[in-house]
Amino acid sequence: MAEPEINPNVSFQGPIPGSSLTTEQGNRPWENPPKESSLDVVINNYLSRLRNQEMVTPILDAIRYGTSITTIVEAIIETAVMEGEHTIDVGILASPVIVEYLKQASEVAKFEYKLSDQEIRKEKEPKRIDSRILEEVLQEMEQQKSNTPIVEDIETSAKDIKTSSKGLMARKPDIKGDTDELRLG
Questions:
Q1: Which of 33, 52, 114, 150 is most buried, with most CB under 10 Å away?
Q2: Distance of alpha carbon 160 from alpha carbon 164, whole angstroms
Q3: 98 burial level (CB within 10 Å; 0-12, 13-18, 19+)
């Protein structure tokens, strides 16, 4: 009997079906009511965290190296929602305040920043090859093909390989002379 074939397109990184039913309801943070539902309290919590030097330094480093501010804010908000800090709608309402705070922090630190990924994509224009240079390179390649007899080159390189190769474990020829003379002398 033939073994069944495994589908190479199957991804084993997703959750197992029914895994949400293996724990008591309410054990996961997202299954409980949020810790905060007031927009003012949530904004104040974010701003107090961002005033902490240990928290804001890696964020500013990410901004300096090209990560957009909205991407960072979205990650912060989604993490807080997963941990049950607040609901997604309160996070979306708080995000413009956090974006402005990080924008001002970047300006104070004198970093160039991008607000969105679209700005990053617009900035990176695809590199284009100058058609004149491309034509010159293609002409040179054609000239090299017409000037060199390929068959003769392949035959001579094959002969060189046959004469110089004696195998992986073969002794290397000694430059000064025969190796037996060195051992006896």
A1: 114
A2: 6
A3: buried
pLDDT tens digits along 161-178: 666 656 666 666 555 544
Packing angle between helix 39-50 and helix 88-108, nearest 10 degrees? 30
Q: Provide the CA 99 distance to its chain's centre, in angstroms.
A: 24
**Residue whose C-alpha is closest to residue 38's, from 87, 95, 105:** 87
**54 Cβ contact partners less than 8 Å away, ≥ 6 residues apart:** none
What type of residue sits at position 179?
Answer: T
**pLDDT of res. 31:** 77
| % helix, strand, coil for the chain, step of 5 | 60, 0, 40
Contacts of residue 145, Cβ cutoff 8 Å, sequence gap at least 6: none
State the burial class of residue 45 (Cβ atoms within 10 Å of its Cβ: 0-12, 13-18, 19+): middle
In contact, 103 and 69? CB cutoff 8 Å: yes
Please tell me which residue, 119 or 82, carries the higher pLDDT value.
82
Residue 44 burial by Cβ neighbours in a 10 Å radius (0-12, 13-18, 19+): middle
From the list 45, 54, 52, the residue with the least C-alpha distance to 80 is 45
- Residue 38 DSSP SS3: coil
